[in-house]
Amino acid sequence: MSHTIRWGILGTGKIAKAFAAALKDTPGAELAAVASRSVASAAAFGLEFGAARSHGSYQALADDADVDVVYIATPHPMHHENALLCLRGGKAVLVEKSFTMNRPQAEEIIALARQKNLFVMEAMWTRFLPAVQEAKRIVASGEIGQAVSLNADFGFAADFPPEHRVLNPELGGGALLDLGIYPLSMAAFFLGAVESVQAQAQMGPTGVDLQTAFSLRHQGGALSACSCSLRARTPTELTISGSKGFVRLHDRFHNTEEISVTLVNGAARSSRTIVLPRSGNGYAHEAIEVGRCLRAGLIESPIMPHAETLALMGVLDTIREQIGLRYGADRVGS
Length: 334
Hints:
six-stranded parallel sheet; 33% helix; 334 residues; eight-stranded mixed sheet; 27% strand; globular; 9 helices; alpha/beta
C-alpha cells in the first residue's frame, strides 16, 4: 500500500460530491478515479473534483489497477451489487449507509471481504467526528456515572415530490434508512449492543415510512428512545444520561462540533461546553480512518466493526418487519 491512498468514487450524486470535497481535506489521500453509468456524468464530476480518471461504467472502476479503495455513493438498493463488484475487483470499499437493504446482503459483502482479505466499512461518518469521539471518551470515563439512558432524534420536513429518492420504495426511501440509521447506530455506539427493539411508524402514500419511533434495550439493561421524521424539523440532538448527569450532542448531532456536559449533585448543577471543530464538511474523518486501517493492513475498523454493522442491519430488519416496511430486496431468495 502506497503512502497516498488512491480513492475511487462510484456514483456522482450529492453524497459523492460531498465526499470528493472532503478528500481535499484528507491528508495522504487523492481522488484517483470516478465512475458513473454515464461517460458525460463521470467526466463532469472528474473535472469538477480533479479526478485523474473518469470511467463510464462501474466495472471499469472495479478494474482500475490504480485505485486502492472505492467509496460506494449510489442509492441504498445498489450498495450490495456495487460493493460486491468492487471487492471482486480487489478493491477495499467504504459503503455509504444504510450499508445494504437488509442483513443477508450485508452478510454477503462482509463474507466476501473476509474471504479476499479486503477492507470494508460502513460509512457511519458521525462516529469519527472529533466532538463525538470526545463524547465517547467522557461517557467511558464514568464522569456522568454509568450511562443507562439515551435519547436521540433526527428529522426534517421533506418537501419532495412522490418520485423523489427519499419517498420512492424502489430506491430504498423512507425515514428509517436515511435518518433513523443515525440514532440507531449512535445508540449502539454509546450504550452497546442492542438486545431488543419496539417500533411504530406513520406510513406514507408511497409505502415508505414518513416517521418512525423506536425504543431499544441494550445488553446490560440500558434503554434508548429514538425517532426519525420526514415530516418535522426536530431538535436533532442526542443525550446520553447516567446517575451523575448527562452529555448532549447539540443540533445537528450527526455533524456536531459542540457537546455539553452537565453534572448534577443534589441542588448543585454544573455545565461546561466543549467545541471541537470538524475538518471541512466532516466526511474527511472517516476517510482518515480508512487510510489508517489500510496502511495498518486491517480489514475492518474497530470504531465501525463488521459485527456491529451486521447487528444493526438486523435491528433495521426487525424494525421494518414491525412497521410493515418492505423493499424489493426482501423478496430475493424468499
